[in-house]
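Entry, Tuesday afternoon. Goal for today is a structural model of the target with flavin-adenine dinucleotide bound, before we commit to ordering more compound. Inputs were pasted exactly as handed over by J.K., no edits. I checked the ligand SMILES twice against the vendor sheet because last time a stereocentre got dropped in transcription.
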Amino acid sequence: MDSLPHNEDGASGSHLYMPWWLDNRKLDFPRGYHIEIGGGRRMPGFGTLGGVHLISGTNGGRQIVGGGYGKQLKDDYRRFYGAFVSFAGRGEMIPNADSYCELDPAVVDRWGIPALRFHFKWTEYEFQQVKHMQDTFRAIIKEMGGTPMSAMPSKESGYGIEAGGRIIHELGVTRMGNSPRSSVLNGHCQAHDVKNLFVADGGPFVSQADKNPTWTILALAMRTSEYIADARRKGEL
Ligand SMILES: Cc1cc2nc3c(=O)[nH]c(=O)nc-3n(C[C@H](O)[C@H](O)[C@H](O)COP(=O)(O)OP(=O)(O)OC[C@H]3O[C@@H](n4cnc5c(N)ncnc54)[C@H](O)[C@@H]3O)c2cc1C
């Protein structure tokens, strides 16, 4: 707070990536997550400078000093500009038997093809992982001498976990595996049931690590293509 104006103010924002750092530790959830950290002295957003009017006069949440209008508000715009840091935790969900899709028995698309019906459920693993994120975000803020601007989300709210399907890295559905009972594709992304059907996209994933998926989608697609070319050469397809 109260930092001096800089020549490059508004030129950009910062974006930091903190990889998972607790591999092979005993925790109450498997796998891990990364943290995407935002903030900085970026161009103020459309509206009222990122909501400063909501905390004006509160000394950054520490104590009420009066204000919220006029000079106080203007001073606070200067005071809080660049003082906020935001955290987004992105973790791996462990696939579970309650999360799957199936053909809807009643709904069809406009061509009469049955639509997909999705079922989705978080488990304690994800809730524990998100609690760990929230505790970690607050610990980092405390270590930096900052003040968390929101209360720790309750257990009942799932510690603030997003609704399933809200984030942008959903994968799977036609997962690969050895058994046709629990998977659609074999290890070559080839359908167990239809030998000349291959899936070369995000469908074959059996899980989604916390990382962005596109490079792995491309690598799997390349591997699948090589397998198809090889099988064709041998006359197997
Ligand atoms: C906003 C956003 C940002 C992202 N940023 C990143 C990133 O920075 N890095 C990263 O690695 N990943 C990122 N992702 C994730 C990545 O884009 C996806 O994981 C990836 O595109 C999935 O590829 P896909 O081929 O499985 O599916 P899609 O790319 O969704 O392709 C599915 C295709 O099927 C078509 N389709 C659907 N139904 C039918 C039908 N009935 N008949 C014919 N065609 C149909 C759709 O039109 C679409 O073209 C991002 C995703 C979003 C939404």
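The longest strand covers residues 100-108.
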